[in-house]
Amino acid sequence: MIEFERTKELAKKRKMSLLEVNDKAGLGKRSIYNWKNRKPGIMALIAVARVLHTSVDYLSGETDDPIPHNQESIRLEDDLPHSYRGYPVPERYLNIVRDLMEHDIQERENQG
Known about the structure:
The protein has six helices and two strands. The chain is 53% helix and 4% strand. The two termini are 34 Å apart. The protein has a two-stranded antiparallel ribbon. By secondary structure, it is mainly alpha-helical. It is elongated, with a radius of gyration of 19 Å. This is Transcriptional regulator with XRE-family HTH domain.
């Protein structure tokens, strides 16, 4: 099944064994190996996706992009107060993030 193959592939890229992924996801003994013959439950897929820093959609074959994309975007241009773990984010930190993002965006545009 595709879930097993993609989990195996990502685990290898992350230098993790399937048993290690299985344990970190808190699944039953050798659960991931059972995915060779039967579809995993959604809760197991969610747990494994978190461990492998990917999406359930990728593991289940709904997308070929292993990088999860958050549809919600934070607009740093807004005048809204930003916080991290309950503390206000200083404007100088936001400026650093803006500069880093601009650099990355320009780099991607130059490559493509």
